[in-house]
Amino acid sequence: MELKSTNSSFTNMLSGDERLIYKPRPQDPEKTVLTQEAIISVKGVNLGSYLQGLMASMISSNANKGREALDVAHSTHFQNLLFKKL
């Protein structure tokens, strides 16, 4: 599965395109490998590298939050299944 998103805020000076690719893990098809790509473009701003760094940091932080949320959801689901069997 592939997901694409585009940040449309401040399109005249800052844009961001992100792509997430989910594939079965080759060694264990029951697990998933996530690949994340982001392209950040800054136009006509003196602080271009600063803004790129800031946006990259935000994307990384959000990716970590998403990973933590999936871990919690998976753990909760597993615990619910375990307790239902007992």
UniProtKB/TrEMBL annotation:
Lineage: Eukaryota, Metazoa, Chordata, Craniata, Vertebrata
InterPro entries from the UniProt entry: PRELI/MSF1_dom, Slowmo/Ups
Domain of life: Eukaryota
Stretches assigned to the PRELI/MSF1 domain: 1-82
GO cellular component, one term: mitochondrial intermembrane space
Name the UniProt record assigns to this protein: PRELI/MSF1 domain-containing protein
